[in-house]
Design a protein that fits this description.
Helices cover 14% and strands 21% of the residues. By secondary structure, it is an alpha/beta fold. Among the domains are: 250 residues, Ribonuclease Inhibitor (Leucine-rich repeat, LRR (right-handed beta-alpha superhelix), Alpha-Beta Horseshoe); 66 residues, no CATH class. It has a 30-stranded mixed β-sheet, with no helix packed on it. Strands 43-45-47-51-53-55-57-58 form an eight-stranded parallel β-sheet, with no helix packed on it. Helix 7 runs antiparallel to helix 8. The longest helix has 31 residues. It is globular.
């Protein structure tokens, strides 16, 4: 009976407690609900705000007054008090700002707050965060907070986890204060914070995770970090300012340090033997730390180590064989060091090794037989060494997926060996492969690289049958002569460049995205089937002998980014089918026989960065409508039949990004286009942050263009975005050089030669601070060379020859390097290097009076004029010469006649030079420039 009463009392007490506890929270929910809804209304939901998350969703969409806030997504309340104690809005697609007046700070009982992975753009971390006195976990990472971290964060003395990484600053004083007050910290993540301080000594002894990666820390790492008894994870990666000795003394053998990541920290010294005391270490990442010397033998004592990453250092000597015997080692990466000697045999009783990367060292000799005991190996990279490889060693590695032996030597006697059927990636570039028999067993390859080998003839039929799973095939730089068909199914990248392929163009599968077959001997027409490749991104057919017309349907492939058909024998018109939505970034048709006008449909290619139509037979006028292309960097129309003046349109911002314009060897006429030069924004400003144009897959393809610089033709590859070029040479431009061209201060190469330009060289050319090559030769320029040109410190090539310049050649460091041929054909010039001294010599003005000359000067002039007349007579005909001498002798004061003769002489010489220039231009037009 008593037992039943007790049970009844317990039941009644439980009911009373349940009822009271269920009612109690409602005393607080109204206020908390209002605060949370106000906070929600200050923000918006933006689907791009949490782009770093795998599965973001807007948690606040469930928040409304009809429900208890404790039941909302991301909100957790205390069951006893009803206070909101946890708010998790990570990956909620939230966007907006959080200021100090935010209702968020009314939730004074919060213990956990996670606002990570949203976009609070330009929000500063409010000092009000420091009033969450009960907070144990605070995560504001990757949410675009900016500015300085307030010192009030150090007031959160109960914090166990603090994650703030992002575009933030933390001054040295606050950093020390943070560590001094937050004595309960277990996890501290300040990745990418600009701390600009040395690492303090007083870390919490409770720390298990410390991340200070990619900060601006200075000085050396204090050894106290390695004496934290509970430390499990240490990240100091990408701290370029940290340096000094790697800590050597008294590693605490009782430490539980399991993960040590000091990547990109500068340790220009040996890896110490004392690292072997970290017996609990499971993950060691010391890549790019400038470590030197050999690997210490003590590393073989790390029996718990699973990941060992020491790549991109200066480690040398031999690789200790004991490393391969570590019982727990799964991943060993020692690439990009200076290891040498033999890859020694090792005893491995472990089946844990799944990845070995020894690439880019100086290892040599034969691989040890013990490598075939690593039966669980999935990834092996031995590329860029001097190994002699017996591929039969890999036949029993049934789990092997990735094998890279590039730039080693496969023993020819082993070509009949077999490879594991499991292989998916096989990279054998530059391995002196002549036969493919050893690939028969590899039937599941997805990526195969056989480039730079000695393959000849044609690919055997069995190989195509085996390669049906390929997505990437590279057999470039071999001696293949025939590829009739490419009977693959799902290949995305095919590279057949630099072989001896002849005949018609083989059409790859419709799935192909990147197709490279340049530098061969293909000679037929381009088949229209090529247009079935609707996913094509890059098509490189350059430097073949392809003929016929360009298939118009190529302009309709909207995915196409790069179309390179330069240096073929293509004829007809450029397709007019380029449509809206085109992705074309690079179009290179240089060096063909194309005719007609430049199609205006190219204006639909809004992403176009490079357009090279040079060395064709195109006609028409300057395509001014190209100026509307916002990203055009390179425009080359050289060596065509384009004509007329260069007119500009009413486009407000013409050619805003243009950095190379080559219109040479055409028939453009009229004045140089001042209105065009007023635009060209990229040439008028020097932007050191200018980035290279990038294409998806540009590991395989590099843009190139040939420009005339310093008297030579030079092919610029990949770095063309660094060059700024104006080449308007060999046209029919007249009039003066506009002084506004001096505003193009980013220009490296300027060529206005072989036109009919007149007047003076603008003094504003002295502002061309970046110019390296300036060619104004073969014009009718007059006056003096501007003294301002002497200040051009980068000007290494100057050609002013064959003009009417006069006066003194400017003196300066650069002008002392130019030879006399820079000035030839300017009879009025004086000074170094064409004469010893300029002095006070002045060019005789034809209007000067000579009546005051005395008899002695007349006799001297007479003798000089006599020999001039004689030489002129010799060059122009004996009869005319004798007649000239007779008149000069019979005249008392023959100087006026001598002047006439000198002018006649000048006209004769200039006539000859013009004739020679026309002949030279004619020859140039018939030369196929690169």
């Amino acid at each position: 009976m008593d037992y039943a009463i007790v049970l009844l009392l317990v039941f009644l007490c439980h009911e009373v407690f349940t009822v009271s506890s269920s009612k109690l929270p409602h005393l607080f929910h109204k206020h908390q609900t209002s605060s949370l809804l106000k906070f929600k209304n200050t923000l918006t939901v933006d689907t791009s705000a949490s782009y770093l998350c795998q599965e973001p969703y807007p948690k606040t969409s469930s928040w409304n007054m009809s429900r208890d806030c404790c039941s909302w997504d991301g909100v957790i309340c205390d069951e006893m008090t009803g206070h909101v104690i946890e708010l998790d809005l990570s990956c909620s697609n939230l966007a907006g700002t959080i200021d100090s007046n935010s209702s968020l700070f009314q939730l004074s009982h919060l213990q956990r707050l996670d606002l990570s992975l949203n976009n609070f753009s330009n929000s500063h971390i409010s000092p009000e965060f420091g009033k969450f006195s009960s907070l144990t976990h605070l995560d504001l990472s990757d949410s675009n907070f900016c500015g300085q971290i307030p010192s009030e964060i150090s007031h959160l003395s109960k914090l166990q986890s603090l994650r703030l990484y992002g575009r933030l600053r933390l001054i040295a004083h606050d950093f020390k204060l943070l560590l001094q007050n937050l004595t309960q910290l277990i996890e501290l993540d300040l990745t990418s914070i600009n701390i600009s301080s040395t690492i303090p000594l007083n870390f919490s002894s409770h720390l298990t995770t410390l991340r200070l990666g990619d900060t601006a820390l200075y000085g050396i790492i204090p050894e106290t970090i390695f004496h934290l008894p509970n430390l499990e994870t240490l990240h100091l990666w990408e701290n370029f300012q940290l340096s000094g000795y790697f800590p050597k003394t008294k590693w605490n053998s009782s430490t539980s340090l399991q993960k040590l990541q000091l990547s990109f920290v500068n340790f220009p010294h040996n890896l110490p033997e004392s690292i072997g005391y970290l017996t609990s270490l499971r993950y060691l990442y010391l890549q790019n730390c400038n470590l030197r010397g050999p690997i210490p033998e003590s590393l073989s004592k790390l029996t718990c180590i699973e990941d060992l990453y020491l790549q991109y250092n200066s480690l040398n000597g031999t690789i200790p064989s004991g490393i391969f015997s570590l019982p727990s080692l799964s991943r060993l990466v020692l690439s990009n060091n200076h290891f040498s000697g033999q890859f020694e045999d090792f005893n491995s009783n472990s089946n844990s090794l799944i990845l070995i990367d020894l690439s880019n060292n100086q290892l040599q000799g034969h691989l040890p037989n013990s490598i075939q005991n690593l039966v669980n190996l999935t990834d092996l990279d031995l590329s860029f060494n001097n190994f002699h490889v017996d591929v039969s060693l890999f036949s029993d590695l049934k789990q092997l997926l990735y094998l890279s032996l590039s730039y080693n030597t496969i023993d020819e006697k082993e070509v009949n060996s077999t490879l594991p059927e499991s292989l998916e990636y096989l990279l054998l570039a530059a391995c002196e492969v002549k036969e493919l028999a050893f690939l028969r067993s590899a039937k599941h390859l997805s990526n195969l690289d056989l480039s730079n080998n000695k393959l000849q003839g044609r690919i055997p039929d069995w190989a195509w049958s085996n390669w049906m799973s390929l997505t990437t095939l590279n057999i470039s730089h071999n001696m293949l002569t025939s590829v009739d068909t490419i009977p693959l199914q799902i290949v995305y990248t095919i590279d057949l460049r630099s072989n001896l392929l002849q005949g018609s163009l083989p059409v790859p599968p419709n799935s192909t995205t990147f197709f490279f077959i340049s530098y061969n001997y293909l000679s037929e027409e381009i088949p229209s089937d090529i247009c079935n490749l609707t996913s094509l991104v890059m098509l490189d057919l350059a430097r073949n002998n392809l003929r016929g017309e360009i298939p118009p349907c190529l302009g309709k492939i909207t995915a196409l980014q790069v179309l390179d058909m330069r240096h073929n024998n293509l004829s007809g018109n450029i397709p007019t089918t380029f449509s809206n939505g085109s992705s074309l970034s690079s179009l290179n048709l240089h060096g063909n026989k194309l005719e007609g006008k430049i199609p205006q449909s190219l204006a639909n290619c809004k992403n176009l960065q490079l357009l090279d139509l040079g060395n064709n037979n195109l006609n028409g006028t300057f395509p001014v409508w190209l100026g509307a292309l916002p990203d055009l960097l390179v425009l080359s129309l050289r060596s065509n039949k384009l004509h007329g003046p260069i007119r500009t349109s009413r486009i407000v911002n013409m050619f805003p990004e243009l950095r190379i314009i080559d219109l040479s060897y055409n028939a453009f006429s009229g004045s140089l286009p001042s209105s065009l030069f007023q635009h060209l924004k990229a040439m008028r400003t020097i932007d050191p942050s200018m980035g290279a144009p990038r294409y998806h897959g540009d590991t395989y393809y590099e843009d190139s263009i040939t420009v005339a610089t310093k008297g030579f033709y030079r092919e610029i590859v990949r770095i063309l975005y660094l060059y700024t070029v104006i080449d308007l040479s060999s046209n029919k431009f007249r009039g003066q050089i506009p002084s506004i061209m001096g505003d193009l201060i980013a220009v490296h190469i300027m060529n206005l030669s072989h036109n009919g330009l007149q007047g003076h060289i603008p003094s504003s050319f002295g502002d061309l601070s970046s110019v390296e090559s300036l060619d104004l030769s073969g014009n009718q320029l007059s006056g003096e060379i501007p003294q301002q040109l002497a200040s051009l410190t980068y000007l290494s090539f100057l050609n002013l020859s064959h003009n009417h310049l006069q006066g003194c050649i400017p003196q300066g460091p650069q002008f002392h390097t130019y030879e006399s041929n820079s000035y030839e054909g300017n009879d009025g010039l004086r000074g170094f290097p064409i004469s010893k001294s300029c002095g006070d010599a002045r060019v005789l003005d034809t209007n000067d009076t000579v009546s005051g000359l005395d008899d002695e000067e007349s006799n001297s002039d007479f003798q000089s004029d006599f020999w001039k007349g004689t030489l002129m007579g010799y060059g122009s005909g004996l009869c005319i010469g004798l007649s000239i001498i007779y008149f000069m002798i019979s005249t008392g004061k023959p100087i006026w006649l001598a002047r006439i003769i000198i002018e006649m002489e000048h006209k004769i010489i200039m006539g000859r030079r013009k004739k020679q220039r026309r002949q030279r231009n004619y020859r140039r037009r018939n030369i196929n420039h690169f």
